[in-house]
Structures are given as structure tokens and as C-alpha cells.
Amino acid sequence: MTRRFDVVVVGGGIVGIATAWQLTRMRPGITIAVLEAADRLAAHQTGNNSGVIHSGLYYRPGSYKAQNCVAGRAMLYDYCERKGIPVDRCGKIVVAVDESEVPRLDALFQRGLDNGLIGLRKLSGNEIVEYEPAVRGIKAIHVPETGIVNYIAVTESLARDIANAGGRIQLNTSFLRLVRRNGCIYLETTQGEIEAGQLVNCGGLQSDRIARLCGVYPDLMIIPFRGEYYTLKPESNGLVRNLIYPVPDPQFPFLGVHFTRMIDGSREAGPNAVLSFKREGYKRTDFSLNDVMNYLSCRSFWTMSMRHWRMGMGEFYRSFFKYAFVRALQRLVPEIRQDDVVPGGAGVRAQALEHDGFLVDDFRIVRTADMVHVLNAPSPAATACLSIGRTIGGIVLGS
Ligand SMILES: Cc1cc2nc3c(=O)[nH]c(=O)nc-3n(C[C@H](O)[C@H](O)[C@H](O)COP(=O)(O)OP(=O)(O)OC[C@H]3O[C@@H](n4cnc5c(N)ncnc54)[C@H](O)[C@@H]3O)c2cc1C
To answer: Which of 76, 115, 124, 342 is the residue whose CA sits 20 to 30 A from 66?
Structure first.
């Protein structure tokens, strides 16, 4: 017998789970299911990210990213504190290492003020070492509202709340296609058919394909960018107290390799941003002909490549040669050596590319009569999850 739910969410990453969580609160009694293809929640972007609770410093005021990051950060701190999930509002610094970066650092400071950040402070070169003794820079911003958390723990806790509210979380269940019969929508999955009042697509790296399987043809495609990390050896942890970031390149949506103290006390350096040859390609050797042909056959991919080829080649070079990666780290922490770090994990970002060859900057949510498709939810979507979940929930409920 076909089961029926008011809402079925495809994707058990933090965005799908937070959306289901918000729906159970916004409409008590709603019947809801989350389908996750993997054998666990948070198996992809969510479970392989940097674990940073972003402040909202970087995003265009008024954008979905800015609004949801600032609101979501506060909601996330509150949720973690209530649930006893370890979280640390440790703050971070963004460091200019030469004069050419100072105007961009100043613009970032202003943007932070425009986004309503509290406690932002400009630091001189001498003040930087009070926060991070191993960092050398000429100017910096201290951002006290930034923090760290384990996003797998957050996702699992939200999922427990959903189950307690009567929602269903179904692992090992891949969405295959959508069928319409008598005005109703049916989801064919690897575990049988499910009827849904509405479908919410939070499929991350597969979200554009899921949309097409539903008969929605967005003017964008997902390009996978792998982010590789090195881990500091425990005896070198003293080089990094908290979070140390460079001034980002405004041409590119990624923040540049940085240092992160993880909530378990370890220190990571990275991630870079390397074009991946497979959507879920965590290793350099992972390759999917289908995934590669997908983007090679798109004019927008070539337009983007022409624009960013120099940056792209640099990322490949740093990916293959440890000394080059470490040299990038030495811009911030000059005394770090190749011996201080060992290869760490990797995550793959789902970054949407517009038909005109520009990377989509903001979150992208597309509404149809009985579906909502989340087609671009890169960083800071983990930070923003409870706010994006509320936004998507509002769209689903028509409020
Ligand atoms: C390297 C890296 C570092 C990052 N650092 C940060 C950070 O520090 N702070 C921050 O806020 N954000 C960070 N981000 C971004 C953040 O992790 C993502 O924005 C967020 O996790 C996106 O969540 P999601 O649920 O949309 O996607 P995902 O976590 O990828 O979840 C999508 C889910 O959909 C499932 N799925 C796909 N296809 C199907 C199907 N057909 N049927 C059923 N299920 C399916 C997948 O298995 C997956 O579990 C980082 C991302 C990366 C990659």
C-alpha cells in the first residue's frame, strides 16, 4: 500500500532535516517524511564541513545568505545550548597580510556592520598577536560572534526531535522519480512508492538532477568543488588558537584556505576549492564519466573556466603538492612547516552555476505548485539551517 505524507523532504543533510524540524513546529500534526539515500544522516556536505558557525560578515546585505546566516546563527547557538550540544563562541580573525588587501578588509568590516554584527573590532599588527601569537599581518578584523560546532551532532539531534514529533526519517531510500496520477504526486523510491502532498528537494549535490526528475528544469547546474584539508599534528596545535582567515577574493565564492579549531580540539587547515571529477568525489582519483560529461558539455562551464582558469590551475597545483598548500598557509602563519601537518579529510561543495557562466552567489529556492526545490545552499547554509528551514517551511505552508 502506498503511504501518504503531507510533505516529503528528499535529502537528510542539515537543510532537509532543519526544514522538516521547522515544519513539525510550524504546523503541529503535519505528517512528514525525510528520505535519505545514504545509510546515515549528514553523509555529504553537512558531515564533511569545517564546523564553523559563521557570523554573517561576508554576505550582501539583504540577501538570503545575510538574513538567514545572522538569524540562523542566533537560533543555532540557542538550540545547541538548550540541547547540550558542545558549541564554542570562540570568535575569529580575518587578516590582511599586505597593503593591497586593506581596502577589501575595510569593506568587509563595513559589510559586517551593515549586516548588524556586534562587537566587530579592527586590529593593528601588534594587536593581532594578542589573539593569535603565530599570525603575522598588518591589519585584521576580530569577529566575536563566530563559533564552532559539530554539524553531525546538530543534524542528529534535530532528527530525534522530528521522530519525537511523529515524523519519519527513512535512511537507505533514494528518490528515483516523480509520477503524477489523478492530480496527486507520487515519489518512486528504492523502498517503494510514497504519496506526497508536497515535495521539498534538499538533495545538495544532486539537487539539480532531482529537480529535473520532477519535471522542473532550472537554468543552472551543480558543479562539485572539493575542499581538501590538512590536519595539524597535536604537537603543532599551539600555532592556532581559534579561527584564522585570509581576506577573501571577491571574484570567488569561497573563503580561501584558513585555520580552524574544531570542537574536538583538533586544528584543520583548508579547505581549498578544486574542481571535482565526481559529485561525491572525496578523493583526487574519484571519477564519474557521467558527472564530468555533464559539465564539460555545458557552455556555461567553459565560460566560467575561461574566467577563473588561473585560480583553478592554482587550486589543482596546491592540491597535488603539499609544499604549495603549506606555502599558502604560511601567508598567515609564517612559521608553519610541511612537518606540522598531515593530510586530513575532504568535503565536496554543491555550487550552482548559472547559464551565463557565473557561480550563483545567493541561496536559490524555486517554488512550483506542489514542490519546493533548494538548488543552491552552499556555505553558510549549515550555520543558517534553522532560519532557512523556517523560510522553506513558510514557502511550503504558503505563509
Ligand atoms: C568543505 C566544506 C566546508 C564547509 N564549511 C562550512 C562551515 O564551516 N559552516 C557552514 O555554515 N557551512 C559550511 N559548508 C557548507 C555546508 O556544509 C552546506 O551548505 C550544508 O551542509 C548543505 O546542506 P544540505 O542539506 O543542503 O546538503 P547535504 O548535506 O549534502 O545533504 C544532501 C543530502 O541529500 C541526499 N540525497 C541526494 N540525492 C538523493 C536522492 N536521490 N534521494 C534521497 N536522498 C538524496 C544526500 O545523500 C545528502 O545526504 C561547508 C561545505 C563544505 C563542502
So the answer is: 124
Q: Return d(Cα 388, Cα 377) in angstroms, integer.
A: 9
Class (C level, CATH) for 1-85+146-217+363-399: alpha beta
C-alpha cell at 138: 598588518
Rounded distance, CA 316 to CA 299, Å? 22
Residue 225 Cα, ligand 1 centroid: separation in angstroms?
Answer: 12
**How far apart are the C-alpha atoms of 389 and 18, rounded to whole Å?**
5
pLDDT digits (tens, 9 = 90+) for 362-397: 999 999 999 999 999 999 999 999 999 999 999 999
What spacing in Å lies between the alpha carbon of 128 and ligand 1's midpoint? 33
Which residues make up the CATH 3.30.9 domain(s) of the chain? 220-354
Ligand 1: lining residues by beta carbon, under 6 Å: 10-16, 35-38, 42-46, 48-52, 54, 174-175, 202-206, 210, 227, 271, 347-349, 377-383
Q: What is the pTM of this model?
A: 0.97
Q: How far apart are CA 113 and CA 115, in angstroms?
A: 5
d(CA 276, CA 268): 21
Q: Which residues pair with 391 in a beta bridge?
A: none
User: Distance between CA atoms of 41 and 350, rounded to whole angstroms?
Assistant: 17
For 173-200, the pLDDT digits (tens) are: 999 999 999 889 999 999 999 999 999 9
- Closest CA to ligand 1's atom 37: 203
Residue in 45, 73, 200 to alter for ligand 1 test, most ligand atoms within 8 A of Cβ: 45
Q: Which ligand 1 atom sits nearest the alpha carbon of residue 260?
A: 8
At the topology level, CATH places domain 220-354 in: D-Amino Acid Oxidase; Chain A, domain 2 (3.30.9)
Q: Smallest Cα–Cα separation from 7: which of 165, 136, 160?
A: 165
> Where in the chain are all domains bearing CATH 3.50.50.60?
1-85+146-217+363-399
